[in-house]
């Protein structure tokens, strides 16, 4: 005779912290900040708005669309990945040794270094996954444009 195997699915909740150990706010939270107006940010905006929350969306570009908003603006020095995927060319931005934490830096827009606003902004822009020669069979208009 053969062996019969059976398998049963078990439900494992994502939040396995008992209610007694969770934090309860003293007041009802009704204001939400959403960072990024890409697809996820716009869907979050729609859902929170429908639930009656007061929303503020922060986006670095002039229009929503996240990474899929094409612009001719490119980073000053886009990294070319030459290391293993685990390492990549990522360099963390850590505070200098010996400073008091939390650490902050202040950037003044005094233009004494003769760097234009456009060039200063390019210094902080990461590369986007869309470029001039990219072709696609998807519609050109965003599906979430009328949110």
UniProtKB/TrEMBL annotation:
Pfam families on file: NAD_binding_8
Xref: Gene3D superfamilies: FAD/NAD(P)-binding domain (3.50.50.60)
InterPro entries: FAD/NAD-bd_sf
Protein name: FAD/NAD(P)-binding domain-containing protein
Organism: Piloderma croceum (strain F 1598)
């Amino acid at each position: 005779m053969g062996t019969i195997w059976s398998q049963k699915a078990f439900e494992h909740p994502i939040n396995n912290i008992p209610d007694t150990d969770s934090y309860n706010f003293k007041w009802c939270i009704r204001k939400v900040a959403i960072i990024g107006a890409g697809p996820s940010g716009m869907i979050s905006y729609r859902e929170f708005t429908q639930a009656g929350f007061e929303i503020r969306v922060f986006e670095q570009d002039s229009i929503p669309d996240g990474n899929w908003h094409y612009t001719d603006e490119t980073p000053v020095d886009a990294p070319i990945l030459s290391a293993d995927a685990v390492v990549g060319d990522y360099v963390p931005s850590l505070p200098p040794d010996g400073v008091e934490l939390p650490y902050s830096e202040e950037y003044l827009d005094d233009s004494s270094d003769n760097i234009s606003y456009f060039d200063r902004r390019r210094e902080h822009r990461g590369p986007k996954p869309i470029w001039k020669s990219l072709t696609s069979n998807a519609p050109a208009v965003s599906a979430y444009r009328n949110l």
